[in-house]
Amino acid sequence: KLAGMSVWFSMEPRGESLEEGLAAWRSILESYPEIDGMELITQERGGGSGKGFASGEIRKMIAEQFGAAVSDDATVAESVVDGTTQIDGALRELAGSIRLAGALRDGGIAGKRSIAVGVYVTDPRALATLLPVMRKTVPEEMFLSFLPSYGARGVARAVERAKFTAADWRRTMMASWMEFDGNIYLQQHNTAAIARLMELARTELGEE
Predict the structure, then answer these.
(1) Which residues of the chain have pLDDT under 70?
(2) How far apart are CA 13 and CA 35, in angstroms?
(3) Residue 72: CB atoms within 10 Å
(4) Considering just the CA atoms, what is the radius of gyration of the chain in Å?
(5) What's the pLDDT tens digit per position in 113-127?
(6) How far is CA 88 from CA 43, 60, 121, 133, 138, in A?
(7) Is 149:123 a contact under the CB 8 Å cutoff?
(8) CA-wise closest residue to 44 among 85, 9, 7
(9) pTM surpassing 0.85?
(10) What are the b/e assignments for 89-111, b being 16+ CB within 10 Å?
């Protein structure tokens, strides 16, 4: 913080009730009162079944969680493709995170801290659908956060497919990789892929 960095605490609500989620955050803030931001993100791979779904099934899931106005939106509808995995759990947990984030804001628990709502999905098709859903459902004052692959190349490919706009980038926190995982099983240090990710952002943001 002295160097100008911000400190965030990331939590996976995992389908807890609103009351359980609020209680968890009260406990977190009691232990870490100086954090600057609060991230609510889905479980890895969305926490769902892992099966692929037909486009009609996915649009029904979106309608069930967010209403017909979202599922029938043109940008959402055109993003849905057959065979997408990880989408069932991600939609369910995303909806819960949005409700919890709103309660943290409206109830004064968050205070002046920033809030981010995020998804951890590694199927690029899921990210391409979740992004337009989040545009329409996550309050504008909140950040969007994404962990879209297990490697730097995969992150860049997933982001390119999802077609982030300048408005998306302005409120996005994006996770990429310098190594494969915590065991450092596969060294990457893939500067080319990280540069590609920055290029995708600069293409939309220009000189911002």
Answers:
(1) 179-189
(2) 18
(3) 12
(4) 17
(5) 999 999 999 999 999
(6) 12, 10, 11, 13, 18
(7) no
(8) 85
(9) yes
(10) bbbbbbbbbbebbbbbbeeeebe
